[in-house]
Automatic annotation (TrEMBL):
Transmembrane intervals: 12-37
Highest taxon in the source lineage: Bacteria
Alphabetically ordered keywords of this record: Membrane, Transmembrane, Transmembrane helix
Protein name, entry field: Prepilin-type N-terminal cleavage/methylation domain-containing protein
Organism: Candidatus Portnoybacteria bacterium CG10_big_fil_rev_8_21_14_0_10_38_18
Pfam families in the record: N_methyl
InterPro entries: N_methyl_site
Length: 174
């Protein structure tokens, strides 16, 4: 008499191989999703930092332009309010602020500010610090450097930009 085998089921090896394939696919998918979320968060922070860096340079340019509007175009006064050194800046102020190491806060309207410049209801701390450096290159040139730093995922990140401003509206000294 011949033995009958049940050929309708799976063998133990087939089940183990199938489970291994499914687990490998799941682990790969979870790793890819985790990496994507982390990359998205890092990209978002970098975009914000680049905007804050550019804003720092625009504030310095705005101070220079306001000097021109107030007829300060001579080599001796076109850079009033722009002394050499490292500074903080805020979007709504036409002045440089001391102590370039404070952390920026974010108010509910989406504007960044320093906490020592007043409290705003609903504001949250951010990881960003902005430093604006001013260096005189000559009588008619200023080098402005804006750098934003932040820590994320255990890594120190930074974005830096430079701008050379000229006194191209110079009036001769009288």
């Amino acid at each position: 008499m011949k033995a009958k085998f049940n050929n309708r089921g799976f063998t133990l090896i087939e089940v183990i191989v199938a489970i291994a394939v499914i687990v490998t696919a799941l682990i790969g998918s979870v790793a890819l999703i985790s990496f994507s979320v982390s990359s998205t968060r890092t990209s978002r922070s970098r975009i914000i930092a680049e905007g804050l860096t550019q804003e720092g340079l625009e504030i310095v340019r705005n101070i220079r332009d306001n000097n021109w509007l107030n007829f300060k175009r001579k080599a001796s006064d076109w850079r009033d309010g722009l002394p050499e050194g490292n500074w903080r800046v805020e979007y709504d102020k036409l002045q440089l602020l001391s102590d370039a190491s404070s952390t920026l806060m974010l108010d509910p309207s989406g504007f960044y500010f320093y906490q020592d410049q007043g409290t705003r209801t609903g504001s949250v701390a951010t990881p960003f610090q902005r430093r604006v450096g001013i260096e005189y290159i000559g009588n008619n040139q200023i080098k402005a450097t804006s750098e934003v730093t932040w820590q994320e995922n255990g890594r120190q990140n930074s974005v830096k930009a430079e701008l050379i401003l000229y006194n191209w509206l110079e009036e001769p000294e009288t």
